[in-house]
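Dear Dr. H.,

I hope your travels went smoothly. While you were away I took the liberty of generating a structure for the chain from your last submission, since the lab meeting agenda had it listed for discussion. I wanted you to have the full record in hand beforehand rather than looking at slides cold. The sequence, exactly as received, is reproduced here:
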Amino acid sequence: MRLQQKLILLTTLSKGLMAAILLLALPWVVQSLVLRHTDDALRAELRQVQARIRQVGIAEFLPQHATAAGRRTHYDLLQDEFIDLEAITGLPAPDTIGTFPRRQHDALVDFRVLRHTDRYQGQLFTFEIGKSIASIEEVYSLLRTLAAYALAFAVLTTLLFELGVIGYLLRPVDHIVERLRAVRGPTPPDFPPLRTSTTDFQYLDASIQQMLTKIQSVFEQERQFITNASHELLTPISILQNRFENMLRAENLPEEAEAQLVTSQKTLQRMTATLRTLLLISRVENNQFARTERVAVREVLTDAVEELEDRISDLQLAVHWSLNGTPVLQPANRTLVFTLLFNLLSNAVKYNQPGGELEIGGQPEPNGAYVLSIRNTGKPIAAAHLPHLFERFRRFDQEAAEGYGLGLAVVRSIAQLHFIHISVASDTEHGTVFTLRLPAPVGY
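The corresponding predicted structure, in token form, is as follows:
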């Protein structure tokens, strides 16, 4: 999973968790706020009643035919609120606020009640100011709904904002990945500095550029060494071959010495082939071959199969063609393309089983690219060996004495020069399949 996807998932989960916690706590919070607001309103009404009593006297709040002692309860029109005044004896009690039942229309209804004791004209009175819980619940329900909508809006808004910010902040990562994908060989393209204000990404980009430069330097040294060493070794090998040939022309040469000379000649020939292959790889990687031709891939495949006809006949292999369309490489070097395809077909024949199959197939893509596959039915390659298949001097079949593991290294170098993506898959059911994705010809 990509870093951006992980951050988006983390943000979404955190927002979801926050919303869940707030939704669980929302009823208690809203209820507490509504009750606190109701209690403050009851206290304000009490202060208004006390002010009215100081203005007109306590008698105005008592029954008309009562003296200082008496009780009076007044409800509003909808009976959602009441004020109760009662004369009492005893000691003053502290103010209390709570929920108590009151009889209303022959039914008990819960009220939020404020109780206050005060002395007027030498008489102790208890005031009760109440508000129906049902009316409070209406406000509570309204506030809860509004709070839920506000919470959902806030979560969605912040989530969308954070997703946009995450995408913007991580955009340089996509640019860095695109740059790394554009590197198809030891010589990286010349990229301008990454445009970002994030110092971490600037440091990462600079470090990658330094790493690519160092890798390029190491590869250049290796190429130069291989080129020089190959040239230097070819000369003494050529001299030794000439000497061996002269010695073989001697009339009095013993048979044992003649056999040893022939064996030495074969060894020198293999060394020469290896050195010439290393020189070819070095020249390809140094981009010393011109790519100015338009190469018909079907024609090159046909020529390669014809050269391998004797080996195909010896193993009695069945060759199947299923090339659709007209695969073309342009610009390309026909000699190198032939070497690439010949090496793949040669391996497909060499590591096949007698009476097996060799299948050459291909399919064009809508964008002009072409997918070419070469499949054989020989012994499958172990999965652990597949990542190292194109490395130099890697030979996984120890029974095969031929070759030094440079054929597929040549294939990889030529493929990189022509921007061909190559992959391999192998199993017991389908055999070994090399897949090449040829780029669209220039001007397609």
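Two observations you may find useful: The chain has nine helices and twelve strands. The chain has a mean pLDDT of 81.

With kind regards,
E. W.
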